[in-house]
Structure formats: C-alpha cells, structure tokens
Amino acid sequence: MTSCVVLLVEDESIVLLDVENSLIEAGFEVVPAVNGSTAIAAFDREPERFGALISDVRLGAGATGWDVARHVRSVVPTLPVIYVSADGADDWAAQGVPNSIMITKPFVMPQIITGLATLLNEGSSSLARENGSRGP
Q1: Looking at residue 4, what DSSP letter applies?
Q2: Do residues 125 and 134 touch, judged by C-beta distance below 8 A?
Q3: What is the arrangement of strands in the sheet containing 5-9, beginning at the earlier edge strand?
Q4: Could you tell me which residues come within 8 angstroms of residue 20 by beta carbon, excluding any fewer than 6 positions away?
Q5: With a cut of 70, which residues of the chain have pLDDT below it?
Q6: Can you give the pTM of this predicted structure?
Q7: Which helix (H) or strand (E) covers residue 126, if one does?
Q8: What's the confidence (pLDDT) of residue 136?
Q9: How far is CA 67 from CA 71, 96, 105, in A?
Q10: Which domains are present in the chain?
Q11: Which residues contact 36 (CB under 8 A, 6 or more apart)?
C-alpha cells in the first residue's frame, strides 16, 4: 500500500519542518513548498501523486494558500484541503474551498493529523458509496 502524499505549503521554515516531520512520523509522504508558486509547480508536475493539501493561508508575495487550494481543486475536485492560519479564519467561509478544514495557529500536531485522517476517511467513504460498496 502506498502512503498518502501530502503537499505541505508553509513559508515559516521552522513550522514547515515541524509539520513535515510530524506527518512523516504519522506515515505520510510529504512534498514541502515554501510558497504558493512552488506548491502549484510541484502539484502541476504530478497532480495524480497527491492525496491531500495542507497550506498556510498567508504565504508572502505571490499566490496565497487560498489560491493554491483553488488551483489543486480545479484539477482534483475532491482533494482533501486543510488550511492553517493565525489570522485567516475569518476569511475561510468566503475564500476557502468547500469541504475543507481550517486550523488556527498556534496548533498542536494531533489537530493536523486528525483533520487529515478525517478528510481522507470521508473521501474513502464517498468513493465506496459511489462504487456501490458499503462500509462496516
């Protein structure tokens, strides 16, 4: 079984490394990006590779986390998306993609792992329903 590949977008290197290490310890493969442009380029090279996106909202100059999420969802409409932000939660309803999760900074890693597991499980359940399968 292949592990889920997570595109992780965070412009603060210490936060990026902390989240990346925690995701790896939880069994995920991680492709880190320090800004929106790098994230979009990594995604566009192999969109089928990615199973989820975790992105800070504010990424400095250029594409925001909102932009990255809208881009990946335009290609893979069901891709799980988690936003993390210290001040973007108020904009989530207007800017965020549907069926996403907002986690406010500061956060603890179990929030990210639980949110990711929840979105991935919801996606698996939806796929099973679409294929006529039933869960336990």
Answers
A1: P
A2: no
A3: 29-33, 5-9, 52-56, 81-85, 101-104
A4: 8, 30, 32
A5: 1-2, 124-136
A6: 0.89
A7: helix 109-130
A8: 28
A9: 6, 9, 19
A10: 5-130 (3.40.50.2300)
A11: 9, 59, 62, 63, 64, 65, 67, 68
pLDDT value of residue 123: 76
Tokens standing for residue 111: 């929030």
Q: Which pair of tokens denotes residue 63?
A: 């594409």
Contact assessment for residue 32 and residue 11, using Cβ atoms and an 8 Å cutoff: no
| Residue 42, both tokens | 């990594």
In angstroms, what CA-CA distances link 131 with 109, 113, 127, 135?
33, 27, 6, 11
* pLDDT for residue 128: 36
Q: Do you know the residue count of the chain?
A: 136
CA atoms within 13 A on the CB side of 41: 9
Q: What is the pLDDT of residue 1?
A: 38
